[in-house]
Design goal:
single chain, mainly beta, Tachylectin-2, Chain A, Jelly Rolls, 2 domains, nine-stranded antiparallel β-sheet, seven-stranded mixed β-sheet, 40 strands, elongated
Length: 521
Amino acid sequence: MEHRSNPVLDADWPDPDVIRLGDEFWMIASSFHRSPGLPVLRSRDLVDWEHVTNALPSPVPAEHYALPRRGSGVWAPSLRAHGDHVHLVYPDPDHGILVLDAPHPAGPWSAPRLLLPGRGLIDPCPLWDEDGRAYLVHGWARSRAGVKNRISLLEVTPELTAPLSATRTIIDGDAIPGMRTLEGPKAYRFDGWYWILAPAGGVAEGYQVAFRSRDLHGPYEHRIVLEQGGTPVNGPHQGALVDDPSGARWFVHFQDRDVFGRVTHVQPVTVGEDGWPRMGAPIDATRGEPVAVVPVERGHDALPWTEPARSDPFTTAELLPRWHWQAAPGPDQHRTGHGGLDLAFAPSPRGDLRDLGPVLAQQLPGQPSTWQVELTLPATAARPDEGVERAGIVVLGLAYAWAGLRRDAEGIALVHGTRAQDAAEEETAVHRLLTADPTAAASVRLVLEVDPAGRVDLSASILGETAPALPLLSGWQAVKGHWVGAEVGLFATVTGMVHHRPQDRRAAFGPVTVRREGREI
């Protein structure tokens, strides 16, 4: 028996749901405004995970998500197998509850269809009864619906195509002393009971509650089954109950790590003589706290890292699943497959990278990491007054920091910029003018280093020179995004006279190399 440390996925994979098909586990997570969304991960042991695909090419409706709708989009989804299909049900708090279907979690996935329209409907989970009837439980977002802290139920068609009943509240958190922000329900049926597992108490400070009833419509009795206890794992809740091929049960949940987002933990689950689940290590007769390590049976070829791969040589015809945009990209926004990535310069009227949809990003890993990429601004015959071009690498959240190249009428310069969360303007520093000719080419190697607290160092080397790397920014504290952790991204943008410039100007990025503990990941 081998032991692996929690969190098993130390990066932003919010609101996980997991099912097992045969010997494989499949996980999905929230993706909010990101495009593509609904990441699908595969594991053989709940510890080593591979990011296989993304089920949702872009959030819908497309016209709404042409801009970065931070805090909207795909909230906590659920994944279930029924019949010869798997169903992925997700909420968009501004539009309603949507469904995708596939013959297998690896896809291909259908286009999303609207099952239940409405604002503030969140965290849906389907359940099929023994007679084949289907139901949906869900929560509520006060920011859109005006109510929260309750779990509701309605009957839907078995194919999850339409509602068949009105919605009714089956668990009212306001009627339970001390309970607040009850949400995220996951419904199960076993041992003659209907179970609803749901978090309460808030994202960063909450706990996991188990509800059970002999009747799906209630009444329900409840217990708190997992909380922080004496551990450093704050807010352990919102996830999935799943069994392994041996029959052992596990609870997969998140912990909010602020700038690193909601990271994934795995807890052992046993069932007491009273039939209630016991999660993690016991605090008392009913409650558990998170365990630091997870026992793993090695009867397979394990994946080499617990965190999915980050580096990318850009040799595939399509972007690898690890990448996402901040909004649905326009046509021909990027080119790849030739050992590099060419990004078209996207208009940015305000010059605020938080407004920019075509930022190609990944989650910021929860452990120290070093990112390296080469960047070239190619030569151009354009006039120097045809917009100010910027391209580089960015750590993006409610605040951001970037480093790269800027081309304007004075030439091409090595620059870094930062913008605080509430700042009206970006603070920019020019470190070196590489050429006074604005039509020339320039190339640099950019290095971004992140420490255990999410502090960022940026440096650069001029390609073709042997001088040491030039420090650009040191100890800048990354800041989380809206419902997500910070991200590392690549961008190319233009401000100014964008309507009079050639449309096929692009910044060229080389392969991205990411290292952790001295090893490429």
